[in-house]
Amino acid sequence: MPHFNFDDQIASEPEAVREVVGRVAVPPLDPGRPLVFTGIGTSLHACRVAATWVNRVSSGRLHPLVLEAHEFGLMGPIRPEDQIIVVSHRGTKIYPNKVLERAQAAGASTVLVTGFGVEHPLGDRVLRTCRDETASTHSVSYVSALAALGILVADLLGEEGRELRAAIGDVPEAMRRTLKLPIPQRVVETVADGAQILLTGYGLDVITAEEAALKLKEGAYLWAEGMSVEFALHGTPAVFGPSTVAITLSPAENDGGRTLALQGLLREVGVSVFSCGSAEQSDLRFVEVNPLVRPLVSIIPLQRLTAEVARVRGTNPDTTREDIEPWASAIKRVKL
Question: How far apart are CA 263 and CA 270, in angstroms?
């Protein structure tokens, strides 16, 4: 069975996060000024986690905005008092850089969270994450961006952020232990045979579900969709059936029994259902951590699942079809 660069990137995550925690010098932000987080794809998922942290850790006092960089790079007001945090894996994409250009023209302050690939990237201040990934299905750049954003948020909120800062420090060890947990072959084979893959979560786990769905698209070439458990109960059941495979993230907080309700509904209409959580009986497991930092750890079994499904299906998470026609030519014609 093939070994992917993607495997190596996932294995590097504990050390990458440890390095970020030890290295990042956080630029001062003003909690009294507007905060806007922006990115695309996986980077946008990291932005949404960061914005949730700001809101929760400040006990709802702060309400940051999250915008996709494509839209924000082309329209929408930017004011001099805005503080704009841009997340970009390599710092080379068109629209995150357009946001930075627009912000500079408006006199707003900017922070860029990015890797080491571009020596002099745009942005008033730069938080470096990790070396550029060799797999196009991103993994380590996501969790290292989350680590940098977590430190940024924790320092922004001062005393309120101490719990978050401490929890991030515990993440590398939890990651190392999670990487040693098995990925059951029965889960791999069932997902590999699925026509549509559903991933659901509650709270921060919704973002993890959406990020995992993107990994399965990129790495295993499967149509997957991530959503909240409540969304999955409204209208969406009309498309569920025996060809659907569902992975439900077990909630860290009270979800009103909705995950259990969804699991029952899914099984009743013939869907194969697997759980992902920290409990020993979970089908896909990760080590329990402070609920605030679950996104850095809970994504690991789902990233690893993507790699295992790719091996079964004969796909390549390192290239996301950029080495196969007609995808190769079609994708290369669109500048990202």
Answer: 11
What is the spatial distance between Cα 295 and Cα 47, in angstroms, rounded to a whole number? 12
* Backbone torsion region of residue 204, taken as left when φ is above 0, otherwise alpha when ψ lies between -120 and 50, otherwise beta: alpha
Q: What span, in angstroms and rounded, lies between the C-alpha atoms of 320 and 157?
A: 39
Instruction: Pinpoint the residues of the chain covered by CATH 3.40.50.10490.
Output: 5-177, 185-313
Q: How far apart are CA 171 and CA 289, in angstroms?
A: 7
Instruction: Give the pLDDT confidence score for residue 91 in this predicted structure.
Output: 85
Is the CATH code 3.40.50.150 the one for domain 5-177?
A: no
Strand order in the sheet with 83-87: 65-68, 35-39, 83-87, 109-114, 125-128
3-state secondary structure of 200: strand
CA distances from 209 to 5, 72, 195, 247, 336 (A): 23, 24, 18, 9, 24
100-104, 109-113, 118-122, 266-270: segment of lowest average pLDDT: 118-122
Residue 120 pLDDT: 87
C-alpha to C-alpha distance for 56 and 52, rounded to whole angstroms:
6
CATH number of 185-313: 3.40.50.10490
Residue 226: CB atoms within 10 A of its CB come to 27
% the chain with pLDDT above 70: 100
Q: What pLDDT, on a 0 to 100 scale, did the predictor assign at position 1?
A: 84
- pLDDT at position 135 over 80: yes
Residue 11 to residues 105, 146, 243, 270, Cα–Cα distance (Å): 41, 17, 32, 35
Of 309, 302, 175, nearest to 226 (Cα)?
A: 302
Q: How many CB atoms lie within 10 A of CB 146?
A: 28
Q: Which two tokens stand for residue 291?
A: 């609920």
Given a contact cutoff of 8 angstroms between Cβ atoms, the answer to whether 89 and 69 are in contact is: no
State the residue for tokens 């907080």.
253
> CA-CA-CA-CA torsion for 73, 26, 151, 216, nearest 10 degrees?
40
Task: Give the Cα separation of 331 and 336 in Å (integer).
Answer: 9
